[in-house]
Amino acid sequence: MIYTKIIIAVLLSIPLICANAQEITVLDEQGQPLANAVIEISHPLLRVTESPNKELYIVDQVDKQFVPQVLAIPQFSNVSFPNSDNIRHHVYSFSKTKPFELKLYAGKPKAPLTFDKSGVVVLGCNIHDSMVGYIYIASNRVFSISNDLGKVELSLPREVVKDGQILIWHPQQKLGVENLRSMNIQEVIDNQYRVTISTNPPSPRNTFEQLFNK
After folding, report:
1. Where do the domains of the chain lie, and which CATH numbers do they carry?
2. DSSP H helical ranges for the chain
3. CB contact set of 44 (below 8 Å; sequence gap of 6+)
4. What is the dihedral of CA 209, 36, 56, 74, to 10 degrees?
5. How many CA atoms lie within 13 A of 103 on its CB side?
6. Where in the sequence is the signal peptide annotated (predicted)?
7. CA 44 to mean position of chain CA atoms
8. pLDDT single digits (tens) 152-204
9. pTM metric for this prediction
């Protein structure tokens, strides 16, 4: 998987750091597994640096949905937005992290977009208002998205455990879609590698504009 490659790259690029693979469980307030949560390990040793050899990430449009709905990428990455539907879409975002607009198109846009700021970008379609997607741009090189069982496996370098932070995000979090929650790594270890996120119930009626009260 793409995120496994990222973790491997971290270990190769920081040879002095010994890392332990740890499984973190993400739960909602009812103790149920929470999918599509992003967990990022934050520490100065793990900061992303711009590379000329950027991997291309994809957010497709299939059956009037963004696929994947949640994409996590390292800062400075390129993302392409192909349209696999037989209708045209008009993809855009007014998130402060990366405002952009891909006007009405079919097939593949001419060029990918570079996401050079860390944060969260909410995607919408100007034609199909119910289409909502998310791109999480990580400023650190160790991160992953929870699966349907709420599981995230990350390599925790021993040198960052003492003073490193875990950044936590979910699209339905009560904290707000563009905010990140931070915890000390030791807090997560003391809690048996479990993280709880307070979420709002998902609603199919939520639209791109409603997320920003527009």
Report:
1. 2-47+142-196 (2.60.40), 56-137 (2.60.40.420)
2. 2-13, 158-161, 185-190, 208-211
3. none
4. 100
5. 0
6. 1-21
7. 20
8. 999 888 889 889 999 999 999 999 999 999 999 999 989 899 999 999 987 65
9. 0.85
